[in-house]
Amino acid sequence: MRRLILLLFVVFAGFRAGPAAAEILGDARVPFTADRALTVDGNSIPGKIFHTPGLQRHEVMLLGMRQTVILDARTASGWFILPFLKSYVPFTFAPAAREMDVAKLRKTRVREETVNGVPTTQYKIAERGKDGTEVSGFAWISAEGIVMRLDGTAVTPHSNKPTDFRMELSNVQRGPQDPGLFVLPDGLNKLPFEALQGFVKPLTGVQATH
Length: 210
Hints:
- The chain is mainly beta.
- The protein is 12% helix and 50% strand.
- The protein is globular.
C-alpha cells in the first residue's frame, strides 16, 4: 500500500497533510492546467493535470485505458476513478506522501533553470519519512509554486528495489478551472482498494495491498 501511494501521489504531485491543514506540493497561487509526462521505472504514463488551490485532478492512461485521480488536500483523501467500470476507489494519503512539504524540498537550492518556457529553481531532494521511505533526486519549482519537473528515486522500507521516477509538465495554461472537475461524479459504484491490483501490478510489479 505505501509503495503504491508513493508511486501515484508523491511522484504525481507530492503531498503534505498536517493535523489542521494540508498542502499540495505545487499548490500554486494561480489555478492552471498542463500536460504531464510521468515515467516510473521506464514505464511511460502520459496524462494531464488540472489544478486549483487545494485540489488536483490527474487524467492518466494506464494499460491503454483512461483513468482519473482526484486529490483533495483539505481532507488528505481522494478517489481513483475507473470510468469504463463506472466505479471508483477511495483512499487516504499515506504517511510518506503527507511528509513531503514544500519547505523540505526547497532546503537545498541548486540553480535557476527554465523548464518548458516556465522559469524555475532547481532544488535537491534528500528526504526520509517516518515510515522509512527514502526519496532522493531533484525538483524544479516555479515562483508560483508549480512543480514543473521531478527526477529521482524512491525506496520503501518493505522493498530493497528502488523505484525511479521522472515527472515533467508542459503546455502550462493559467486560469480558472471548472469546479466540477474536482467532484466525484454521481452514479459510480464504490470498490475496495484491492480492485486496483489488476491495473497496478502489470505496470509496476507493485502489489496493491494495505
